[in-house]
Design a protein that fits this description.
This protein has 324 residues and is an alpha+beta fold. The protein has helices at residues 11-17, 23-37, 43-48, 80-85, 98-102, 127-131, 160-167, 205-208, 261-265, 308-311, and strands at 64-65, 112-117, 123-126, 137-144, 149-159, 175-180, 200-204, 214-219, 222-223, 233-235, 248-254, 289-292, 299-300. Helices cover 20% and strands 20% of the residues. Bound molecules: ligand MTE.
């Protein structure tokens, strides 16, 4: 399905200008869903409600601490309620609270991922297949949205490199493309032409193989809440949050650089690399500072979101201003 939005609708203003999704109409349409999930919530409460933190889910077994994680004393971790009620997941609406109010209908079991393209082990793999033999780790990471807000999130996941190795990419594979779910039954946002659905993201293969890049399946030691991209999402902590494709259903190895959704939508504003870079402003706002959710004063944004020592080698010789 190809639905185009006018090129002049910028990412950060989709919400503010409400050109396509009037929040009241959207929530009204979704109110049945929200009420069903949130227990006794009247329509009027739902219409004006702030985000609804996710109910606590199943505890994940055998989660190990990772040396690649921030230590809890290094950065204050955002709370469960903050992380699960302030989200970007446009398939459930463009307001920050919409995903938390309506994502509860998303069906995450059974779940499978189609592995395609330049790899030896193409096929349809269940989530259980993907998790077989995988050691789950806690990775507390900084999470920096291109809209200049940030959080610190204790993900549970496993290195993306492990999944890639299992797929056995061919010598031709240079990139990995991630495609996420479109479900008209449960995702009211995909009826709005905000982006061309499904949501697609991509990484260079060497970026995807970096030990900091993970597939997340959990949060705070529990199964990942739906609004955060259950059951399987990408987390690349040195890049802007939009690279973190949620609810992934297809992984494709390609020779050519994939087109990601936001680049397709507004190429002058969102690039393929999307590395956090305080020296390269967005055309309409600064990227030098950010608002940490829960804090009053802005803080300085760190190069590669604070992961420069680990990842800058990936970009040696690359002009980061041109390759934003
Ligand atoms: N994935 C899908 N499928 N749809 C989306 O709208 N939003 C992206 C990313 N992944 C998005 C998505 C953006 S813009 C951000 S900032 C992060 O998810 C937000 O993740 P969080 O809600 O867990 O903080």
């Amino acid at each position: 399905m190809l639905i185009k939005k006018p090129a002049d609708i910028p990412y950060s203003e989709v919400t503010d200008r409400k050109l396509y999704v009037n929040r009241r109409d959207f929530i009204r349409a979704a109110a049945g869903v929200a009420a069903a999930g949130a227990g006794v919530v009247s329509i009027s409460e739902t219409l004006f409600a702030a985000g609804q933190p996710a109910p606590h889910g199943r505890k994940l077994d055998g989660v190990k601490k990772s040396p690649l994680s921030l230590a809890p004393e290094q950065e204050k971790t955002n709370t469960w309620d903050q992380i699960t009620s302030y989200n970007n997941y446009y398939e459930f609406g463009t307001d920050k609270d919409s995903p938390s109010l309506v994502a509860n209908k998303l069906k995450t079991e059974p779940w499978s991922v189609q592995v395609e393209g330049e790899c030896a082990k193409r096929g349809n793999y269940s989530l259980d297949d993907i998790l077989k033999g995988v050691a789950l780790e806690e990775r507390i990471y900084r999470h920096r949205c291109v809209e200049a807000w940030s959080m610190v999130i204790p993900w549970v996941g496993f290195p993306l490199s492990e999944l890639i190795k299992k797929a056995e990419p061919t010598a031709k594979a240079k990139f990995v493309e991630f495609t996420t779910l479109v479900d008209y039954g449960t995702m009211p946002g995909v009826r709005q032409p905000v982006l061309r659905w499904p949501y697609v993201e991509g990484l260079r293969l060497d970026e995807a193989m970096h030990p900091l890049a993970i597939m997340a399946v959990g949060l705070y030691g529990e199964v990942l809440p739906k609004q955060n991209g259950a059951p399987l999402r990408l987390v690349v902590p040195w890049k802007y949050g939009f690279k973190g494709a949620k609810s992934i259903v297809r992984i494709r190895f390609t020779e050519r650089q994939p087109m990601n959704s936001w680049q397709e939508s507004a190429p002058q504003e969102y690039g393929f690399y999307s590395n956090v870079n305080p020296n390269v402003d967005h055309p309409r706002w600064t990227q030098a500072s950010e608002r940490r959710i829960g804090e009053f004063f802005k803080r300085k944004t760190l190069m590669f979101n604070g992961y420069a020592d680990q990842v800058q080698g990936l970009y040696a010789g690359l002009d980061l201003k041109r390759n934003y």
